[in-house]
Amino acid sequence: MDELAEVLAGTASTVFFGGAGISTESGIPDFRSSAGLYVSATPDAPPPEYLLSHSCLVQDPEAFFDFHRTSLLHPEARPNRAHTALARLEEAGKLAAVITQNIDGLHQAAGSRRVLELHGSAHRNHCVDCGAPQDMAWMVTSTGVPACPACGGMVRPDVVLYEEALDSRVMDEAIEAILGCDVIIVGGTSLNVHPAAGLLRFFRGRQLVLVNRDATPYDDQATLVIHDSLGEVLGSAVDAVLPS
Fold it and tell me: What are phi and psi of 174, to 5 degrees?
């Protein structure tokens, strides 16, 4: 953590690239850990990969929305120490962007302004027929296959499902941010999900920092690896750089 604090103190061009692990301390389960959604799924239920796919949305929308409401919507979740630490870094002019694979909106809730959501957001929904928007609160209280109040069409979340392409504009902005930064902190992600994990190949900066509870395929390429809690690591490092 002391080394990370030194890295942060010596640069004004940092990007954070994170995944589900940053939100587990807010009570949101991740996907691939021992307690993740993929592991905890019941043997007789369809696999989560299918329930999170475009095919499921089209072929079995009731199953899709049941899983979406029960497993992916967490309106009670609040930002944790890691989220607030990143917001403080941005406010101090030391963080250029947050690139996230998460759909929970906790970075914005903590105060981060430039958040690039690779997989969209569960806080946004739209009618597939007329485009009318709805928020998370509306989706939480909906039942069955949610119908648009305006036209009756299906309302789907603005999230990228399996079999769907990432938003090219968000990807381009993420690549630009990574190309322009001096330090990139990668946290709370296994770096096994592509194409998002492939963004690291665009990094040309000085320091690649990996903060994750488990090892990743990129550990041997990093200048600093910390296997610990993101909240503790980022919170302590930022406290050292930006004392209250």
Answer: -65, -45
To the query of whether residue 123 is one of the catalytic residues in this protein, the response is: no
What is the separation, in whole angstroms, between the first and last Cα of the chain?
A: 18
| pTM (global) more than 0.85 | yes
Query: Does 127 carry a binding-site annotation?
Result: yes
Query: Binding residue per annotation — 32?
Result: yes
Amino acid at 19: G
Q: What is the tens place of the pLDDT at every residue in 19-63?
A: 999 999 999 998 765 555 655 556 788 999 999 999 999 999 999
Domains and CATH numbers, the chain: 2-26+78-119+163-241 (3.40.50.1220), 37-73+126-157 (3.30.1600.10)
Helices (H) and strands (E) in the chain, counts: 10, 9
Q: How confident is the model at residue 197 (pLDDT cuts 50, 70, 90)?
A: confident
Residue of 119, 126, 194, 227 marked catalytic: 119
